[in-house]
Amino acid sequence: MRILVAEDDPSIAAPVVAALGEAGFAVDHAADGADVEFRGQTEAYDLAVLDLGLPGMDGLSVLRRWREAGIGFPVIVLTARSRWHDKLAGFDAGADDFLTKPFLLDELIVRVRALIRRSAGHAQPQLRCGPLYLDANAGRFSLDGAPLALTAQEFRILAYLMHHAGRLVTRAELGEHVYEGGFDPDSNVLDVLISRIRRKLGLPLIETVRGQGFRLADPA
Length: 220
Ligand code: CA
What we know:
The protein has 220 residues and is of the alpha/beta class. 41% of the residues lie in helices and 22% in strands. Strand 3 (47-51), helix 3 and strand 4 (75-79) form a beta-alpha-beta unit. Helix 1 (10-22) packs across helix 5, helix 2 (33-42) packs parallel to helix 3 and helix 6 packs across helix 8 (189-201). The longest helix is centred in the middle third of the chain and has 15 residues, at 105-119. Bound molecules: calcium ion.
């Protein structure tokens, strides 16, 4: 899962980027509003954390432009103000959630995980595929009831496939959603990581669709 953090205050951006990275997300950071708006239009994000007071273009304008362009990823707005009419303006512009500064990083992570899960169509925090479970709130996998140890990159890949179980995920899509910055879809890094995950699972849950991508077995 890949997240855009749009925040111009380094004392807020740095801990947010670090915490989201530790929580298993690929994170891009941008500080200028026009840059933020462009990235949201051109990159494949699963969620954005958006400060309202950005230089270049304010956060509400960024959000309005995204929504007018049909960009639908969930957006958590960060605001220094907790006044209701500010929040109402944010919801009108297409925000999904709000956090008023200062906020707890743990609370941000919980809200991010819940929004990403729900936007992928999962009502329950437990995602299941046979004996494989993802506790989407805690960000932990288990297999046959035992914790499944994964590296950060393995976690990102399996979490993305788990959120989209049962459907073909192309190599390009997977690369875009698990790596920050650019991704070369021709590199074999995904294949290497997928084969490591398969070994850890010990079960044929991940199917390779030749020349296209991968599919995690349907939960049913
Ligand atoms: Ca700001």
